[in-house]
Amino acid sequence: MIGIPRRYSHFVYGIIQSGLTSAVAAAVASAPFYKEGIFWSYWLQASLLAWFVMLPVVLFAAPAIRRLTEMLTLKD
């Protein structure tokens, strides 16, 4: 394991979640380029751009979303 302290788990989660979401969204958006043979280059460029845009959004929005989720759900 890398050994990142647990207090930084919010950031690790945000990096992984935003990267995965951006990669999937870019793949869907790049699908029309598959037949042209430029899918991978287009997907990589779109995925990296989306990741750099989404990472701060996820890191700053996650605490608010977590609080909203707790307000909208009942405790077991």
Give an overview of the whole structure:
The chain has 76 residues and is an all-alpha fold. The protein has one domain (8-72). The protein is 74% helix and 0% strand. The chain contains 2 helices and no strands. The N and C termini lie far apart (33 Å). The mean pLDDT is 89. Pfam families: DUF2798. Keywords: Membrane, Transmembrane, Transmembrane helix. The chain crosses the membrane at residues 12-34, 40-65. This is DUF2798 domain-containing protein.
Which regions contain 5 or more consecutive residues with pLDDT less than 50? none
**How large, in whole angstroms, is the Cα Rg?**
16 Å
**Count of alpha/pi helices:** 2
Described by its quaternary structure, the protein is single chain
Which class best fits the helix and strand makeup?
A: mainly alpha
Percent helix among the residues?
Answer: over 70%
- Whole-Å distance between the termini? 33 Å
Q: Provide the domain count.
A: 1
Task: Write down the secondary-structure element order.
Answer: HH
Mean pLDDT: 89
Number of strands: 0
Biggest sheet, in brief? none
Share of residues in strands: under 5%
Globally, the shape reads elongated
Keywords: Membrane, Transmembrane, Transmembrane helix
InterPro entries: DUF2798
Protein name: DUF2798 domain-containing protein
Transmembrane segments: 12-34, 40-65
